[in-house]
């Protein structure tokens, strides 16, 4: 199951999985692109292992910083059924 986390101003969608039985959480980032369709990246927490499909080095560095700064929330929400369930919305 993937849960929405955030939508950025450029329509980049950031989602995350529930925590898997091995303690890993998949963070999926996807940005629409008129030329290529979509660019996407995956980060596996807590290892911070990245897979990149189309982002430049500068863009990927931005997302690496974003995920590092939000990892504690993403990991917490992954155990609570996403943001909506964790915040009782």
Automatic annotation (TrEMBL):
Domain of life: Bacteria
Name of the protein described by the UniProt record: Uncharacterized protein
Lineage: Bacteria, Bacillati, Bacillota, Clostridia, Lachnospirales
């Amino acid at each position: 199951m993937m849960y929405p986390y955030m939508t950025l101003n450029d329509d980049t969608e950031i989602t995350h999985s529930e925590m898997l039985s091995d303690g890993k959480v998949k963070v999926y980032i996807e940005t629409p692109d008129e030329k290529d369709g979509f660019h996407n990246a995956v980060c596996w927490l807590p290892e911070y292992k990245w897979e990149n499909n189309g982002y430049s080095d500068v863009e990927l560095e931005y997302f690496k910083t974003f995920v590092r700064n939000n990892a504690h929330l993403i990991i917490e929400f992954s155990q609570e059924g996403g943001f909506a369930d964790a915040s009782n919305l």
